[in-house]
Design goal:
Elements lengths: L5 H20 L6 H8 L1 H12 L28 H8 L7 E5 L5 E3 L1 H6 L3 E8 L5 E10 H8 L7 E9 L6 E7 H4 L5 E6 L2 E2 L9 E3 L12 E7 L25
Helix pairs in contact: 1-3
This protein binds the ligand Nc1nc2c(c(=O)[nH]1)N[C@H]1C(S)=C(S)[C@@H](COP(=O)(O)O)O[C@H]1N2 and molybdenum atom.
């Protein structure tokens, strides 16, 4: 077994200390001053991952560790008519649209996505509700797609538009990443789960995997990707369906 070097050890304890500090913050949120401090907690979490953990990969697992059953959560059968039409046709007419601050906007069919160099990873999915499952994902790295379309100056975020509208309040599901996570090697647009085409409960025909963040970042039922300088114009402006309803935008784990 390789020895953990001193630097790694130091970085880990710094990260743990910061995490403990973050965890402890919840209990202090009484005064407005502390509220202001808490608004910075998410930024600290992001800073710790970016500067202390570097381009760390999320842990990958072995085939034997796959969960026997992978829970499906959130939307599991979108009712939106356009999605139903595409699903009925086996997604042959579905296209992933890519637009915004890109040099060559366009659409990708499933066949085109499957022809691009794939990546497979076995990872643990952690939902904010407190459950985890290990699954195997195959798809095209988002970096490959962004390379194809070419980013234009001013690009900062990638926004993912989904096909599902949540029944609770009629809001459409969407998510976003900054370019650091967009180009992370484990950030993929997955079309296969456990060696089979994605099923509808798990986000067919294409879903995002961003393995260093919580489950709600992993947008299912992808329809469109937009590269943008800021998030204000999307949804209610906080960068995601759940973020608009109070969750952190940077859900690092
Ligand atoms: N489009 C869309 N994506 C979504 C959701 C959703 O409701 N709609 N739920 C999120 C949440 S909270 C989780 S935990 C995962 C669940 O993925 P799974 O159904 O494959 O377990 O998808 C995420 N992506
Ligand atoms: Mo979740």
């Amino acid at each position: 077994m390789p020895l953990i070097d001193r630097r790694t050890l130091l970085l880990r304890s710094a990260a743990t200390a910061a995490t403990l500090w973050l965890g402890g913050c919840d209990r202090l949120s009484a005064s407005p001053r502390v509220e202001g401090l808490l608004a910075g907690a998410e930024a600290v979490n992001r800073w710790v991952q970016r500067h202390l953990m570097g381009s760390r990969l999320a842990r990958e697992y072995a085939e034997g560790e796959l969960s026997a059953h992978f829970k499906a959560n959130g939307s599991i059968d979108p009712e939106d008519p356009e999605y139903r039409r595409l699903a009925a046709g086996g997604f042959a007419e579905w296209r992933l649209l890519v637009d915004g601050l890109v040099a060559r906007p366009g659409g990708f069919s499933l066949t085109e996505l499957r022809a691009l160099p794939p990546r497979t990873q076995i990872t643990r999915h952690d939902c904010v509700e407190g459950w985890s499952c290990i699954g195997k994902w195959t798809g095209v790295p988002l970096a490959v797609i962004l390379g194809r379309v070419g980013l234009r100056p001013g690009a900062r975020y990638v926004v993912f538009d989904c096909a599902d509208t949540l029944e609770e309040d009629g809001g459409r599901y969407y998510e976003s990443l900054d370019l650091v996570d967009a180009f992370h090697p484990q950030t993929i647009l997955a079309y296969d789960m456990n060696d089979q085409p994605l099923t509808i409960p798990h986000g067919a025909p294409l879903r995002l995997r961003v393995e260093r963040q919580l489950g709600y970042k992993m947008a299912k039922y992808l329809m469109r990707i937009t590269v943008t300088p800021d998030l204000a114009a999307f949804g209610q402006g906080s960068g995601g369906y759940w973020e608009d309803r109070g969750y952190e935008w940077y859900a690092g784990i």
